[in-house]
Structure formats: structure tokens, C-alpha cells
Amino acid sequence: MKKIIIAIDGTSSTGKSSIAKKLANKIGYTYIDTGAMYRAVTFLALKNGVFRPDGSIDENTLDSLLGKAKIEFRRNEATSHSDMYLNGENIERDIRGMEVSSHVSPIAAIPFVRRQLVLQQQIMGKAGGIVMDGRDIGTVVFPQAEMKIFMTASPEVRAQRRYKELQEKGMPASYDEILKNIHDRDYIDSHRSVSPLKQADDAYLMDNSDMTFDEEMDVLLKIFNDKAR
Length: 229
Ligand code: DC
Hints:
Structural class: alpha/beta
Largest sheet: 5 strands, parallel
Helix content: 40-55%
Mean pLDDT: 95
Strand content: 15-25%
Radius of gyration: 17 Å
Order of helices and strands: EHEHHEEEHHHEHEHHEH
CATH architecture: 3-Layer(aba) Sandwich
Bound molecules: 2'-deoxycytidine-5'-monophosphate
CATH class: Alpha Beta
Strand order of the largest sheet: 2-6-1-7-8
């Protein structure tokens, strides 16, 4: 079997990372969560007052901060997953909260941010044997990926899943706020001028609103066995 590149793109809170992680585990591939990288840059921006009171972004300051920042994944032996680190500090928990979620879309729309992170992602994945999830993996980062999936589900189903996930982690959450955040992010992610969220022509569309996790996994394994042969 060859070591292929698996690109999983789609709308936010569709369960991409859960299924991508599980798939990677099952087939012995490395999982890379590119959303965590955009979240890390957002955390860096929030921490350094890069958002002005009117919501606009001081791009010059962000550019110089980013030039010096070290954004990396390190394996967490306790969970067997990778955690996000910024300049040596574990920020895995910080990047999952509502503050980062509600500021990440404008950061992910900045061209120099995308350029730097895309380059880093291409370096991490070039040898193959990876499952990478994001918004532009099959279209921009690895247009040559052998297996491409585009995942989506209704906004209400996604908001419910995200609400449950935050509750389980003991993090404060309101369903209405989450639903609004999902609608806002869908809009910004698919209307930005650089690398807007869109399905690659050769991606398999999976709407998982009414699918169980096992059903999703069956579909992915079938496609994988076909592509990696
Ligand atoms: O997958 P996520 O919700 O953790 O992603 C956070 C944000 O980052 C999301 O609003 C879209 C953006 N993103 C992106 O623009 N490109 C990627 N490859 C991954 C995420």
C-alpha cells in the first residue's frame, strides 16, 4: 500500500477532526489539524492586543509577531494525540474556547497568515501518510492529494454537537451563541478572497447530518482502501 495524502475539508463543527483522528489512528497515519494552527495565530493576536477596539486587526504588529512565533504540534503521551504549542507553551485548551472561535475567521482571511501556515502544512505533509483536516487542504495545500473528502452537516446539527462537546469539557457555552458563530464562520470562510472554503471538484461530498460515526468511518475506509491500493 502506498502512503497517500488524505485531505478532509468542510464546514466548521462537522466532526472533521474526530473522524480524521480516528481514521489516522486506524490506518497508522499522522493526523494534522490545520484549524488548530489558525486558532494558535488567533490566540497570539488576542494575547498581544492585535485586535483594535473597533474589531479591526493591526496587521503590521501581527506580521512581526508571527515572524518570530513558533507554532508546533507536540505529542501528548497521556491522550496519544498532538497538542498545539505556541512558543513552547501548551495552548491546546485556550484555542478551543469561544473567545478564539469568535475571532479566528478574520485572522484566517489574512493572506500573509495563510501563506505562512500553508507552507508549514506542505512541509509537514509532503512525505504522505497523513490525514490533514481544514478548509483548503484539497484545493490549495495539497491539490494533488489522492483522497479528498468534503464534509458538511446542517448548522443546527453542528451547533448541537459543539454545544455537547464544550459541556463535556466543562467549558461555558450557549447553544444560541454557538449557532450564530457557526453561521458567521460559514459566511466568512466561504466568502473570503483568499482560499475560500469550497469543495474540490474531485472531492467526495459527505453530509453527515443523519449518519452515525461508524457509518462515516465505513465510507472513509472504503475510499481509502480503493485509493491506497
Ligand atoms: O476547524 P476549526 O473550526 O478549528 O478552524 C478554525 C478556523 O480556521 C475556521 O474558522 C476556518 C479556519 N481555517 C482555515 O481557514 N483553513 C484551514 N485549513 C483550517 C481552518
